[in-house]
Design goal:
Number of domains: 3
Helix content: 40-55%
Number of helices: 21
Number of strands: 16
Bound molecules: (2S)-amino(hydroxy)ethanoic acid, manganese (II) ion
Radius of gyration: 26 Å
Distance between the termini: 43 Å
CATH superfamily of the largest domain: Zn peptidases
Strand content: 15-25%
CATH class of the largest domain: Alpha Beta
Largest sheet: 9 strands, mixed
CATH architecture of the largest domain: 3-Layer(aba) Sandwich
Length: 590
């Protein structure tokens, strides 16, 4: 079918209903109820109307819809009584040619799942790219999700049903998110470069990191940028110049980071590089120029994994590169300076990276949310209101190593237990604020032994809050408690603050451009703060900034290989950025 939205908007109720049949499995009432919201501004608006119709129907109707779905590789497939859509989808996922062992495993997992939840396991088998999960991914997902709580799985089943509908709708309208697929595929390919073979880890200036820098460079060169270069800290910079009739045109800056945490996800940072690349590709293909330069940066270091120099790359743009970082050594004793020189980077040119804010309109960044909010609300995009302030510390507690068998419990100076007590205090103290967060992300007993009371324990602290004052109060209380715990336990501590980033409220003007962009897509405008830190908080120090969040799947999990986002949501982020560019261009020309 090659349906057009205006056809659907102008058709009779009956005809419109006919056209939308088969979207919700054996439940055409959902689309029918959504038709009341016609005329639809966009396919996103239609999808939202159907989500609203299902939400309004209440849990019994939602449960009936879930139960109307066939089991994967289940009885309906064997008896060939699947709907045409499900036959196509389960076939594409290779479920029709399972090995006997796979078939046996799926049957068992299906049984366990249905017995536990009282409804069948549902996953959008065509997956986040729309081209199909593999059998192994499906089995892995089922084996993982069978351990979830019921209420989560009930909602997750509905989210997967909406994803199935989204893909079926693309088929009906023959409308595919091609730019989103380009961005999705580019990140998939970039994720092949890693410091380790087991999972995705790309730390500063490693061979994998340089391979990523090269690949991003090639993407920029192939998509119409006028200039592509690297700077002294390894940032990859692409410039799409303004219309030449605008003398001394200002620059809009955008971008995000391409380094990752250890065992990270494919989209953290990278999405914010490829979305603007897709925008430049479209501008270049249309032969269009803006009344401002558009500068896209792949920031080379944001996560602070190899060296304790978080936001190093965007920090260099605001003149906040700390020369002392150059002397830091990594786990193998390689200094940052040596790592840079080995790649031909010139540390003495770092100071030249600093930008003059007068040349810029501001900084905008697209980033995955890295949290559950948009996923739970079935919202593809969210407008960020502020980025939480954060403080990070590393430290160690020194007690006394002693024999695990002979040292009485009241004679111990156990370094781990002091850290454990601190970690529980961090949890309780952060909870007290309601919107603060505190994490002891690293705990390590150097040269520890199973039968030795730990004499030393290394640990980290990551403390965040929506305002600097709240962040500082949290940090103060945690540090004071550390002192109290150590005095009481007769152990000593050393603590070093390694980062303190200010909270960064979004610039109202740039935030408005994001709001108008989301609205133009026929989506509700949803505002949320950012718990995660971003390069935008560094640029915030010298220029206006605002961010757009993109929904993550799997409860928005991030800093985890389960991090996931659909090409349809990526398409929406591209279209939102295109709208922002056009709106900014229009206003500049007034
Ligand atoms: O930790 C953060 O918030 C970011 O991912 N660097
Ligand atoms: Mn991150
Ligand atoms: Mn990030």
């Amino acid at each position: 079918m090659n349906l057009k939205l205006e056809q659907l908007n102008q058709a009779s109720d009956q005809q419109a209903f006919e056209w939308l049949k088969g979207l919700y499995e054996h439940s055409d009432w959902v689309a029918q109820n959504a038709l009341a919201q016609r005329p639809f501004q966009s396919l996103s608006h239609l999808k939202r109307a159907m989500i609203d119709a299902l939400n309004a129907a209440g849990e019994p109707a939602q449960l009936a819809l879930i139960r109307a779905h066939p089991e994967l590789a289940g009885k309906a497939m064997i008896s060939k009584t699947l709907t045409a859509e499900s036959t196509h989808e389960q076939g594409k996922a290779g479920l029709t040619d399972c090995t006997p062992e796979e078939f046996e495993l799926i049957q068992k997992l299906n049984r366990d799942y249905s017995e536990k939840f009282g409804f069948p396991f549902i996953v959008a088998v065509r997956g986040p790219r729309g081209s199909g999960l593999t059998r192994h991914e499906i089995i892995e997902t089922l084996a993982r999700r069978v351990h979830n709580p019921r209420d989560y799985e009930f909602s997750e089943a509905l989210r997967n049903i909406h994803r199935i509908v989204e893909i079926r709708l693309s088929d009906k309208f023959n409308h595919y998110p091609s730019a989103g697929q380009f961005v999705w595929d580019a990140q998939e390919k970039l994720a092949l470069h890693s410091d380790t073979s087991e999972h995705l880890t790309v730390t500063y200036l490693t061979p994998a990191h340089r391979a990523c820098a090269l690949e991003i460079t090639q993407h920029m060169q192939a998509t119409g940028f006028d200039e592509v270069k690297h700077d002294a800290v390894g940032n990859v910079i692409g410039i799409y110049r303004a219309d030449p009739s605008y003398k001394n045109a200002p620059t809009l800056l955008t971008g995000s980071h391409f380094d990752t945490v250890r065992n990270g996800g494919k989209y953290d940072g990278r999405l914010g590089i490829f979305v603007p690349i897709a925008c430049v590709q479209a501008l270049s293909q249309q032969g269009r120029r803006l009344p401002f330069n558009f500068e896209v940066i792949g920031f080379s270091e944001e996560e602070g994994q190899r060296y304790r120099a978080t936001f190093l790359a965007s920090g260099a743009l605001v003149g906040a590169f700390d020369e002392a970082w150059l002397e830091q050594t990594d786990a193998d004793g390689v200094s940052m300076k040596a790592a840079m020189m080995a790649l031909g980077l010139k540390p003495d040119e770092i100071s030249l990276i600093k930008r003059n804010p007068k040349d810029y309109l501001g900084f905008v960044e697209v980033h995955i949310e890295q949290g559950p909010v948009l996923n739970e609300l079935d919202m593809p995009l969210g407008v960020v209101t502020s980025i939480n302030g954060s403080a990070r510390f590393v430290g160690h507690i020194t007690g006394m190593a002693s024999h695990a068998g002979t040292t009485p419990m009241n004679r111990r100076r156990d370094a781990v237990l002091a850290v454990a007590e601190l970690a529980l205090f961090v949890e309780q103290r952060a909870r007290q604020d309601g919107d603060s967060v505190g994490t002891v992300g690293q705990v390590n007993v150097p040269n520890g032994s199973i039968n030795v009371v730990p004499g030393r324990c290394d640990f980290s602290l990551d403390l965040r809050a929506p305002s600097n004052a709240q962040r500082d109060a949290l940090a103060h209380d945690v540090c004071a408690e550390l002192k109290t715990i150590c005095e009481r336990r007769g152990v000593r501590f050393e603590l070093t603050e390694i980062m303190r980033a200010a909270a960064a409220p979004s610039d109202p003007k740039l935030q408005k451009y994001w709001e108008q962009a989301v609205e133009s897509l026929g989506l509700p405008v949803f505002h949320l703060p950012s718990g995660a830190g971003h390069d935008a908080m560094k640029l915030h120090e010298i220029m206006p900034q605002a961010m757009l969040f993109v929904r993550g799947l799997h409860a928005g999990i991030s800093h985890n290989p389960l991090e996931s986002s659909t090409c349809d949501d990526m398409q929406l982020a591209i279209e939102a950025m295109q709208h922002l560019l056009d709106a900014l261009a229009h206003d500049l020309q007034q």
